[in-house]
Specification:
Helix content: 40-55%
Mean pLDDT: 67
Organism: Portunus trituberculatus (Swimming crab)
Number of strands: 3
Protein name: Tyr recombinase domain-containing protein
Structural class: mainly alpha
Low-confidence stretches: 145-163
Order of helices and strands: HHHHHHEEEH
Radius of gyration: 27 Å
Length: about 160
């Protein structure tokens, strides 16, 4: 019995009437329900791949031995990434955010960064006429990009007036 549970369910739903009218065999609903459950338990449908991430890996990525030699741009990228995680967006929505220059803007006064999802991306439960808005991260000051950070850690939003 190597058939998907959906196929077996369709067959078992189609069988009772022909069996009853052709052979006078009555199939009980309970028997069909137990049959479907048993087959589903032995042949679970394959799950679709979903974006996976690990907080441990993220923290390892943003803090490492050579962090003090990073350029400011890399500090900014790490801080934006952590803030994107903190938004509560689904993993697929975060994955759709792109760093391509045409989709990432830093306000002229340097106080906010806006990340826009790829235009071809539709999140779960999203329609073309009702898209998720761009992710705007406020309160990044210009000094974040221009000054050298000598501390052995990533910049935190509280360091720049957030909270």
């Amino acid at each position: 019995m190597n058939r998907p549970s959906v196929t077996v369910s369709a067959h078992s739903a189609a069988l009772p009437d022909p069996l009853y009218f052709g052979l006078s065999i009555t199939m009980e609903e309970r028997a069909l329900t137990l049959l479907r459950r048993g087959i589903r338990a032995t042949t679970m449908p394959a799950r679709r791949g979903a974006p996976q991430w690990s907080l441990h890996k993220v923290l390892h990525y943003v803090t490492f031995d050579g962090i003090s030699q990073l350029q400011e741009q890399h500090y900014l990228q790490r801080a934006i990434f952590l803030l994107a995680l903190a938004t509560g967006y689904r993993a697929s929505q975060i994955a759709a955010l792109t760093r391509h220059p045409s989709f990432t803007t830093i306000d002229s006064n340097g106080k906010a960064v806006t990340l826009t999802p790829s235009p071809s991306f539709l999140a779960k439960n999203e329609q073309a006429d009702n898209l998720i808005g761009p992710l705007r991260v406020p309160a990044f000051k210009e000094e974040l990009v221009t000054r050298t950070l000598g501390e052995n850690r990533i910049p935190w939003p509280a360091d720049y007036g957030c909270g």
